Structure formats: C-alpha cells, structure tokens
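Quick one, T. Sequence first:
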Amino acid sequence: MSKTRKRTSPKRSPAKAPVKRGDILTTITGIILALPRLTRISIAGLFALAVTLDIVVAFYLVDSDFISTMPIAFIPVVLGIVLGLAMYVLGWMTMVGTIGTVMSPNRLLLWYLGGGFLATLVALYWFLQTFAAINTPI
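Structure tokens:
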C-alpha cells in the first residue's frame, strides 16, 4: 500500500467585515456604561467641574474688568454654576441613571463624552498655562 499525501491548499483567513461606525459607537459607550456606578458618577462630576471652570475663565479672558466690577461680578460665577450643574444632570441622565435602570448605549452619551472630554482638555490647558506663567522668572 502506498501512502499518498493529500494536497491541501493554504488556509485563507476569513475576510474581515468592514468596521461599521455604529459598532465603534456602541463599543465606546458600552465600555463607559460597563464601568462601576461610582466611576460614572465621578466622570460626570469631573466634566461638570471642567465646564464650570471653563465658563468662568472664558469670562475672565474676554474682559477681566467685568469680573472685578461689583454689581455684576456674580454673573460669570452663576452662569458657570448653572452650566456645570446642567452638565452634571445630563451626565447623570445619560451615563448613571437611577438604581436599577439599565442604561443602553446611545448617540447622546457619545456626544456627552466628547463634550466633557473637550471641556476637561481646555480646563487642563488653562491650568497648565497658568502654572507656567506663575513659574516664569521675572
């Protein structure tokens, strides 16, 4: 009996399906929603704090005399607090929810994460600029 070898063709890897945009969005928001509840609450708080800081600093950059004028000095602070609170409530609604609520990935959560991340980067940039200006020798 002679043994013959079977000829096998090299295995082809299955064609990869193109990555759909919806899959990436679902993955990103799914990762955030899988985080522990306290972590999601902390993220919402960080984004709210960044928005509050950005609003107050933006008013100061536009007109520093505006903040030092007593009768209207509270306007930037109140506006910053209101927008920061709105950011926190929006984060709570899209990311945290009430106890027992099953949060699903959606486009609003992705927009919230993008805006919050941008606000955090701007606040960090302003903080580093201030830190560099303070440490500059005269």
